[in-house]
Amino acid sequence: MAVDVAGRHCRPVSFPYRGATLYDRIEMSGDGLSFGSLPMSWTNAVPTLRPAVSNAIRFHRVTPFPE
């Protein structure tokens, strides 16, 4: 069951409020996607603190196996 976590805390993470603007860096290449601060930080709400490089966590697109 999905639960709305907007504005809540799950130590050490504080989730942003709904509608908040987060400033991050996104890098896409091949079948992968990486962010500058997500999922390690959810509080990047200051434009001048936008990450300069992407972090090492990379998300890959997973396609279902053919039946």
Provide key terms for this protein.
mainly beta; two-stranded antiparallel sheet; 67 residues; flat; single chain; three-stranded antiparallel beta sheet
Shape: flat
Give the fraction of residues assigned to helices.
under 10%
Low-confidence stretches: none
- Report the C-alpha radius of gyration, rounded: 15 Å
Return the structural class.
Answer: mainly beta
| Relative strand content | 15-25%
**Span from first to last CA?**
28 Å
Quick one: biggest sheet? 3 strands, antiparallel
Strand order of the largest sheet: 3-4-5
Average pLDDT over all residues: 83
DSSP, total strands: 5
Count the DSSP helices: 0
Count of individual domains: 1
Describe the overall structure.
There is one protein chain. With 67 residues, the chain is mainly β. The chain has one domain (14-62). 0% of the residues lie in helices and 21% in strands. The protein contains no helices and five strands. It has strands at residues 9-10, 13-14, 26-29, 32-35, 59-60. The strands form two sheets. Strands 3-4-5 form a three-stranded antiparallel sheet, with no helix packed on it. It has a two-stranded antiparallel sheet with strand order 1-2. It is flat. 3% of the residues are buried.
